[in-house]
Design goal:
The chain is built from 15 helices and 16 strands. By secondary structure, it is α/β, with parallel strands linked by helices.
């Protein structure tokens, strides 16, 4: 009897600690630019549920993805998120994700499971690791999430001709495969996970495929966006002059979605479908938030919403995310939960992958020295201590490099030896290159030196110095 009492006494504190740990709901969109949430950008887009999430929590207005090592930027983004490694270290680790990470319980959900969490997954995965070993409970799995490669979805629409594609027709497959829109499928999965009788705190990773192409939604949602409502971006170009040299040429799958050269009509059509897919995604997120609010878990749950990267969708004459303009590298990032200030906007530069160590800290799990991202809690805690990141960098293959610091952005294209410099405060659409001005040339040199320092810190293999002697 004494042994049983002692055993119970020893277990009780641990049980209390587990009961006190917060739940974590991580909502992840695909191809969603920062502008696509009305409360963040003021864009004419209907996102009432994300707006209410922002109203009850805090928004990081300058959240970024560091880039990618091939055309599928989502692979790099998700690999960094799951491992905590910065871009080039994540690339080096990619071939051994199963042996070095999954087998050793080092992926993000596995670290949370070790800390006593029930881990749940539904949606898009798209990294070279075994999801069945990464999560304890799985509802639906999409390896990459794109539709079958239908030719009628490309090089469209042509003004004055019938459109070859219908985003509302279930016969086209894509998000309609299986009979229900994939965004709705994930929203259906949430209450199933929530109703589980397991008493452990939970981590739910719900990874939507939307608004990635094919940008499909129900007709009623699409009808909310007549073409007359859709504005052509101010930085619209028929043709981007360096698209081939910077690695986003006419053969890139994303770029082939619209005809060459770009037309205002084609861009409006694609943006219409993009906005509709986001509004339908928002409605499904609303269902999830409603279900959570009606459950006892609501009072002790942190909610994160972000996206793996953005999308140009006609900006600068580009249709994809294989570029380093803010439309493609900057994402929405909202956090709500106990102690998170309501309606706060935080302008500090962050990476979306900062969610990984932040969640680990919230869960009371250790954050190893190898994790290359930062805990975001000091940004919202009243007495939080931390060192704000002074700069954000970005990369695409060996074709592009970028650094953003104090509202100034330097973009480099090594092959054509092109230098662009933008003042994001006065020129948020990145239309006016300042690199040829005396002030711009001096600023570009300063940004270049900081970029070289961060390259070294993050094991970037590309040596820019021989290509850009004027910046030294």
């Amino acid at each position: 009897m004494i042994r049983l009492i002692l055993l119970f006494a020893a277990l009780l504190p641990a049980a209390l600690r587990a009961a006190d740990k917060p739940n974590i709901l991580f909502l992840f969109a695909d191809d969603m630019t920062w502008k696509a949430v009305h409360s963040i950008s003021g864009e004419d887009i209907d996102t009432p549920n994300l707006d209410r999430l922002a109203a009850r929590g805090s928004t990081f207005t300058h959240a970024y993805n560091p880039g990618g090592w091939h055309g599928a930027i989502c692979v790099a983004s998700r690999s960094m998120l799951m491992t905590g490694l910065p871009l080039w270290k994540a690339k080096a680790a990619e071939p051994k994700l199963n042996s070095d990470f999954v087998a050793r319980d080092r992926l993000w959900p596995q670290l949370l499971a070790t800390a006593g969490y029930r881990t749940c997954f539904s949606g898009k995965w798209h990294i070279q690791a075994d999801h069945t070993r990464a999560f304890q409970q799985i509802r639906h799995y999409r390896p990459g999430g794109m539709a079958p490669d239908r030719k009628n979805a490309y090089f469209r629409p042509l003004e004055g001709q019938p459109d070859t594609w219908s985003p509302t027709d279930p016969a086209e497959g894509g998000f309609w495969t299986g009979g229900e829109h994939w965004s709705a499928v994930i929203a259906d999965d949430f209450p199933v996970f929530l109703a589980d009788s397991d008493s452990r705190p939970w981590f739910m990773y719900l990874a939507f495929n939307a608004p990635h192409d094919p940008r499909q939604s129900p007709q009623a949602t699409l009808d909310r966006y007549p073409l007359s409502r859709i504005k052509v971006p101010p930085n619209f170009l028929p043709t981007y002059p360096y698209r081939v040299e910077m690695g986003a040429g006419d053969d890139m799958r994303d770029e082939k979605l619209a005809p060459f050269p770009r037309t205002p009509f084609a861009v409006q059509t694609h943006r219409r479908e993009y906005y509709a897919a986001i509004t339908y995604l928002d409605a499904q997120i609303g269902r999830i938030l409603d279900a959570l609010d009606q459950s006892p878990a609501a009072k002790n749950t942190y909610i994160f919403f972000t996206a793996d990267h953005g999308l140009s969708c006609g900006e600068h004459g580009l249709m994809g995310k294989q570029n380093l303009y803010d439309s493609s590298v900057r994402v929405p990032f909202i956090v709500a939960g106990p102690g998170v200030p309501a309606g706060k906007r935080i302008a500090a530069p962050v990476y979306l992958q900062d969610a990984m160590p932040t969640v680990l800290k919230l869960a009371g799990a250790p954050v190893s020295a190898g994790i290359g991202f930062q805990d975001l809690r000091p940004h919202w805690e009243e007495n939080g201590q931390g060192t704000p990141r002074d700069a954000i960098i970005g990369a695409f293959r060996d074709r592009q490099r970028m650094i953003t610091r104090d509202g100034k952005k330097l973009i480099l294209y090594p092959l054509p030896k092109v230098i662009h410099l933008f003042d994001l405060k006065t020129d948020p659409d990145e239309m006016h290159d300042l690199s040829a001005t005396p002030e711009g040339a001096a600023l570009a040199k300063s940004l270049f030196q900081r970029l070289l320092e961060i390259q070294k810190e993050t094991a970037d293999p590309l040596d820019l110095r021989p290509t850009f002697p004027s910046l030294q």
